[in-house]
Design goal:
Order of helices and strands: HHHHHH
Strand content: under 5%
Structural class: mainly alpha
Shape: globular
Distance between the termini: 39 Å
Radius of gyration: 19 Å
Number of strands: 0
Number of domains: 1
Amino acid sequence: MSNTLYHSTVSHYGRGIALIGVVLPLLLIGVLKFTPTEVEALRPIINGTPWLSWLYSAFGMDGASYLLGAFEIVTAGLLIASLWSARAGILGGAMAALTFLVTSSTLFALPIWEVQEGGFPFVNGLGQFLIKDIVFIGISLLVLGDSLNRLHVQEKSQKQDVVTD
């Protein structure tokens, strides 16, 4: 196997695993948002974040959770569809990046430092849960960028086909 083929194969599998790594949490946690357990678990996060607390007054506790869950499930579906559709990848990548930017932003508002260990740099359980979303932002942006590139190539190819006809 040539080095180029080997590198291409590794990149192909790496992209696939990264995509699965974003889709699974979106799907599993998205579905969970329709349960009373998750509705309750979101309360300190949404109430403790000034830029999210409006969700409760607009949709109620259950409605806010359901809205977030539906958004996450749709996002996961679009990311899956990105394998076949550049447009789905653009929308899914943007929605995923937005989702993970919002969840990562809560790191600045919520108590994420382990007080018993002296605080910073020791993160508590909530901080451990939220900090992983930073890598999800990166993967989401890679899907978005790759999809934008694929769409550009497709449109360029279609223009060339029209010119040669």
